[in-house]
From TrEMBL:
Gene3D superfamilies: YVTN repeat-like/Quinoprotein amine dehydrogenase (2.130.10.10). This is Uncharacterized protein. The keyword Signal applies. Residues 1-27 form the signal peptide. Keywords: Signal. It comes from Pseudorhizobium pelagicum. Transmembrane segments: none annotated. Coiled coil: none annotated. The keyword Ion transport does not apply. InterPro entries: AztD-like, Quino_amine_DH_bsu, WD40/YVTN_repeat-like_dom_sf. It comes from the Bacteria.
Length: 412
């Protein structure tokens, strides 16, 4: 696949970074450079979330919740959603990291971590999609999705707009301007009492909740990501792309899998931030780079063993990190579309067994990769350039889900 568009976007991103890194960018005597990073780690089994200072490894707080939680950071990084699907509740943590934009620089304010008094309850909350100043919480068995305003959350209150999802199903909802993209279940199929119907497509609804246009087919829709102004969804037929369409609503386009790809499909997606692209799984032992604006949309990358987790590096846009079940961490060069480096970082963690068994998860913080190692009650920290382990952070129990929040800014 020709990745010229991605390459051009990367060069532009680097140029912007160099401009802001130029000497004198923070020459004002009222400004002092500051940096802060925090890790949030949830236990695999116990109902607890740990907040950890990344630099020192010090635990900033231990927060009891109701059940085992999956963690999702908001787009701003000011909040982390702790979703407890088996216990029908979501808790919210204030990270204490707040950036405010001032044109030529951004300010950083650091405060205490806090478990906010607001919770959200409903039948099997699952996917949380952060976007701009809000997040969308989808309830698989509740037949609804909540659009949650983050600024109100930080005040200890809840401002929520609820949309219907036709019928309970394992789905997702994503905002795009004034419209919402919502997965569509098969309402005609008869399911057993404990089963949810399969997904068959995606629909667009407006501010009134009315559907705009026809449903786009997307069999077994699973996985979504945003990159630039595009949203992608994984389907059996290909990857469905939603583009902004003005007052008429988003435009939906299916990027069909080419015939030369092996049998498989994408069900997990990540979206580039500094440049427009998507990275998705393709079965268990392959990934695909997806460029919606290229003549050839898909670039297949084969892995030596099955993938355990993968993550993009927001500060180094051309890097993605992929952990495979043999315990190796691979660096995927987005521009070249190939694996460049690898190192052994954990013991093997087999993908056999239950899909929810405790296995490592990845996060990126300040030029490092943080990897949970639930078997040894550790978070392992690796240098992103050398892939050498630089230190470990002991976390009681089985550290599992992890997110990193932070960055640098000016303080006054």
């Amino acid at each position: 696949m020709t990745l010229s568009l991605i390459r051009n976007r990367l060069l532009a991103a680097v140029t912007v970074a160099l401009v802001f890194a130029a000497p004198g960018a923070f020459a004002d005597d009222d400004h002092e450079s500051n940096e802060a990073w925090r890790l949030f780690v949830a236990d695999h089994t116990n109902p607890v979330v740990h907040a950890i200072d990344f630099e020192t490894g010090e635990e900033l707080g231990r927060y009891d919740v109701k059940g085992a939680a999956a963690l999702t950071a908001s787009a701003s990084g000011q909040t982390v959603f702790a979703t407890q699907s088996d216990d029908d509740i979501v808790h919210i943590l204030k990270t204490g990291i707040n950036f405010s934009d001032h044109g030529e620089h951004r300010d950083l304010e650091v405060s205490d971590v806090e478990l906010l008094p607001v919770t959200f309850e409903g039948k099997r909350p699952f996917h949380v999609v952060p976007h701009d100043d809000h997040a969308i919480l989808f309830y698989d068995r509740g037949g609804k999705a909540d659009i949650i305003d983050e600024a109100t959350l930080l005040e200890g209150k809840a401002e929520v707009k609820t949309i219907g999802t036709t019928k309970p199903h394992h789905g997702v909802a994503v905002t795009m301007g004034r419209h919402v993209l919502v997965s569509v279940p098969n309402t005609e199929i008869v399911t057993k009492p404990d089963e949810l119907p399969p997904r068959i497509g995606l629909r667009v609804i407006d501010e009134t909740g009315a559907q705009v246009g026809e449903m786009a087919t997307c069999t077994d829709l699973h996985g979504e990501a945003t990159s630039a102004r595009l949203v992608a969804f994984g389907c059996k037929e290909g990857v469905l792309i939603a583009r902004p369409g003005g007052t008429e609503g988003p435009k939906l386009e299916m990027l069909s899998y080419p015939s030369d790809l092996p049998k498989g499909y994408t069900g997990t997606l990540l979206g580039g931030k500094a440049m427009q692209f998507f990275l998705g799984n393709f079965g268990e032992d392959k990934v695909v780079l997806i460029d919606p604006d290229s003549d050839e949309h898909f670039k297949l990358v084969e892995l030596p063993t099955r993938r355990v987790d993968f993550v993009l590096d927001p500060a180094t846009p051309r890097n993605a990190y992929i952990l495979t079940e043999d315990g190796d961490l691979h660096v995927l060069d987005i521009i070249k579309g190939e694996i460049g480096r690898k190192a052994t970082v954990t013991e093997p963690y087999s993908k056999d067994g239950h899909w929810r068994d405790p296995r490592p998860r990845l996060a990126v913080a300040d030029g490092h990769i943080a990897i949970t190692d639930p078997r040894h009650s550790l978070v392992r920290i690796f240098d992103a350039d050398s892939l050498a382990e630089v230190r470990t952070i002991a976390v009681e129990g089985q550290p599992f889900s992890i997110v990193a929040v932070g960055g640098s800014g000016a303080s006054h």
